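Appendix B. Chain record.
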Amino acid sequence: WMSQHFLSVGQLYGQSHGVSSELSTNNTLEARIANMVGGVTAKRFHGLAARRDGIQKLRNKLQAEEEGALQNTEEHRQLKTQREHLDGLAANLDKHFQSLGDLYGVSSN
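Structure tokens predicted for this chain:
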């Protein structure tokens, strides 16, 4: 039942925000975690996935601001430093998500 719940929620979320392979993989992984170890752990994964999405959105925003600040070299440098820091966080999160996928038998596309 729990895995079906997470798949249903994931499908609803995917339909309202556009389906992507990453979202589909996250939904499948979340459902697998719920089925294998329970809803509490799946809920933690869901929170981590939401934070990962937030970091991506912030990276995109900083990159756009960075491109707009080319005339102001100090501001551009600061924005670039912040974005590069987030790039590192995102790369680490991607590795963790890949490890979770491997652990629970869900391949990323």
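Further analysis of this model is presented in Appendix C.
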